[in-house]
Amino acid sequence: MELDFKCSDVGVWKKALSSYESKIESLNKPDLVSLDQYYRVELPSLLHDRDPNPYLTTSELSQLMKWKLSRGKWRPRLLDFVSSLDDSVVKSASEKAFKSLPDISKAVNELTVLKGVGPATASAVLAAYAPDIAPFMSDEAMEVALGNSKDYSLKRYLLFVAKLQKKSKELKLEGEWGGASDVERALWSCHVRSKSKPAEKSSSEKKRKRKE
């Protein structure tokens, strides 16, 4: 099933979202299942336990980066950069970022002072704390929502946020729905499915050829 961003049927979106965990598993990437559990469940809980002054530690940022790179494209240098950051610097920048919300532009700027952290990684940090308003800037969701995933600028992310927030509000009018991050995960799930189809076909064709 491919998901058209213009679709307003909340049932279709729910079906796409419900396939998220199985799609994570289907990628067969080392530690991705546990990393995804950490990112979506454990990390948000840790951050909110620190309210009213939430912050991120260097080790938590490293785990978040591992999740981001495992779910998307692996760029080891980014992991090296964030893992070497001083803990006090990460805490300070992330605390300022979280306090800046719901001003997403300001929040992203507070985080991108950190070496190795661009708007996409900053979006992952914000989405861990405030998933309803700040979706992760994944290539797959960007491709569906905006038509391409080559521009990782703050301006492009803000456009992405606006579109996903609008879609989230639209779906809530049609039925029970979460926030902008649920829109992102639904889009990611469908995009991963559509990309995997040719590979699956190719694999089955190879099996037939071996049998012949």
TrEMBL record:
Positions of region (Disordered): 192-212
PANTHER family in the record: AMUN, ISOFORM A
Protein name as annotated: HhH-GPD domain-containing protein
